[in-house]
Design brief:
This protein is an alpha+beta fold. Among the domains are: about 100 residues, Alpha-Beta Plaits (2-Layer Sandwich), CATH 3.30.70.3160; about 80 residues, Hypothetical Protein Yqey, Chain: A, domain1 (Orthogonal Bundle), CATH 1.10.1510; about 70 residues, no CATH class. The strands form four sheets. Strands 3, 4, 5, 6, 7, 8, 9, 14 and 15 form a nine-stranded mixed beta sheet that branches. Strand 3 and strand 4 form a beta hairpin. Helix 2 packs across helix 8. It starts with a strand and ends in a 13-residue tail after the last helix. The relative contact order is 0.15.
Length: about 375
């Protein structure tokens, strides 16, 4: 079960998968209900569109498993957005070069692939409209009533078990590739399993990459790929980073951009600044106010730092993000004493966990230190 981080146990969520349901809202198919049965629509094209329904699966790991079972490259399976691992979720994916008959051999526990149609274009990051959530919250506190919410990036963006994603991204943006690699390999969080913690600590002490391959858990596949590279070229940290999927490397950079955005939004709330949007920093972004420049300088950055083109071309132009989001169809039902059922939708890129944390815990779990009126 996931709970707030303040030590006050203000609320708990995800006691079981059924407590956190995420249904993707798409442009062409509307809300992809986890309970709806979909019929195949035919069509033409090399991309097979499917509804992927899964329970307690990380999106990237699910994609890897699908690719392995169908004997295709990971890049042949694409999606519009990641979903919470500890949940029941449904989302649109595309599989390139696969016919629907081939899905008969697909058999992975807690992942269901429902073919929808053939299309000449696949699904890409950002193609979704938003997400619909049905979430059960356990709390002794009455939820505050709010019409709009601060559009913070949620903890999923930074890693829940080992929240190092933004730290690795910062090192990549600042071109400190050694620090990026060693953070990814050796940073420890007590929420991780004991064997992984021991392995990371031992590597940090001994710095013997070849020896580390003997004791790093097999399930840490990405770490082991980096270790293989470092065992052959111990000082070539850039090469080691290139062992990681481009999607994961982009996730690191995006997490750092998200961290900077959260800092900007928190400062706006603390200072009472009424801006409509905030910066997702990138090399082509036009700064709109002094605070945006202040955040950059605080971290020793320039916009040009986001031209990360020597590592799988991770450069980011930058964009703007709404600071506040409105939820017009929020439904809160008190099921029993200390138990609430929330039903609401969010635009793409916004986080249900942030909404819950603001309703029950004053946004404290996000680590912003802001105070919202009750």
């Amino acid at each position: 079960m996931q709970s707030s981080d303040t030590g006050t146990s203000a609320y708990k969520i995800k006691e079981k998968a059924e407590d956190f349901i995420v249904e993707e809202i798409t442009k062409d198919y509307g809300v992809l209900s986890v309970n709806k049965k979909y019929r195949f629509q035919g069509g033409r094209g090399e991309y097979l569109l499917c509804v992927m329904k899964k329970r307690n699966w990380d999106t990237l790991l699910a994609v890897e498993k699908i690719a392995k079972q169908l004997n295709i490259p990971n890049r042949s399976v694409s999606f519009a957005g990641t979903k919470d691992k500890r949940s029941i979720s449904s989302q649109l994916i595309s599989i390139k070069g696969v016919r629907k008959e081939e899905l008969k051999k697909f058999n992975v526990e807690n992942i269901e692939l429902v073919p929808l149609a053939y299309r000449d274009r696949g699904v890409f990051i950002g193609d979704l409209v938003g997400n619909h959530f049905i979430i059960r919250v356990y709390s002794d506190r009455e939820p505050r009533r709010m019409d709009k919410f601060p559009n913070f990036f949620g903890e999923q963006r930074f890693g829940v078990i080992r929240p190092i994603t933004a730290d690795v991204g910062e090192s990549i943006v600042k071109k400190d590739f050694e620090k990026a690699v060693m953070t990814y390999l050796t940073a420890v969080d007590e929420r991780e399993d004991e064997n992984s913690i021991k392995a990371r600590k031992k590597l940090a002490e001994e710095m013997n990459f070849k020896e580390a391959l003997k004791y790093f858990p097999k399930r840490l596949r990405f770490e082991r790929k980096m270790l293989v590279s470092l065992s052959r070229q111990p000082r070539n940290y850039l090469r080691a980073l290139r062992m990681l999927p481009r999607s994961l490397l982009k996730m690191f950079v995006h997490a750092y951009q998200a961290k900077l955005f959260n800092e900007f939004l928190a400062e706006c709330i603390k200072r009472g600044l009424d801006y409509e949007t905030g910066p997702i920093y990138g090399y082509a972004l036009e700064l709109e106010n002094e605070l945006e420049q202040e955040i950059l300088e605080r971290h020793g950055l320039t916009l040009e730092d986001f031209r990360v083109n020597n590592l799988h071309d991770l450069r980011s132009k930058g964009t703007r993000r709404k600071l506040w989001i409105e939820i017009g169809d929020m439904k809160i039902v008190k099921e029993a004493e200390g138990r609430y059922l929330l039903d609401f939708s969010l635009p793409k890129g916004s986080y249900a966990t942030v909404v819950i944390d603001c309703l029950f815990n004053n946004c404290q779990q996000i680590g912003t230190g802001v105070e919202l009126p009750r």
